[in-house]
Amino acid sequence: MAQQVAHDQAEFAEETAAYEAEKARVAAMSAEERMKWEADAAACKAGDTTRCAAPAPKPR
User: Fold this and answer.
1) What is the largest CA-CA distance in the chain?
2) Which of 16, 21, 29, 36 lies in the 20 to 30 Å Cα band around 50?
3) Residue 21 has pLDDT above 90, yes or no
4) Long-range pairs for 42-45: beta carbons < 8 A, 24 or more residues apart
5) Binning pLDDT at 50, 70 and 90, where does residue 18 land?
């Protein structure tokens, strides 16, 4: 019984660590994408139209 509990706790700890690592990876990716977007937006506002987003499609 105690061996099963220890196994379950170890498995839970591994799964939690993997989950936290994935959360950190996604957060870093999101932060990187946001920094790029902010840089593109600033460049667009400064006149670099090559970094402007495409206009939204017009509703029909």
Assistant:
1) 69
2) 29
3) yes
4) none
5) very high
- CA 44 and chain centroid, separation: 24
Beta strand extents in the chain (DSSP E only): none
Alpha carbon distance 42, 5 (integer Å): 55
Place of tokens 């937006």: 41
The amino acid present at 2, given as its one-letter code, is A
C-alpha to C-alpha distance for 34 and 31, rounded to whole angstroms: 5
Q: Are 51 and 44 in contact (CB under 8 A)?
A: yes
pTM here is 0.62
Return d(Cα 36, Cα 28) in angstroms, integer.
12
Higher pLDDT: 33 or 60? It is 33
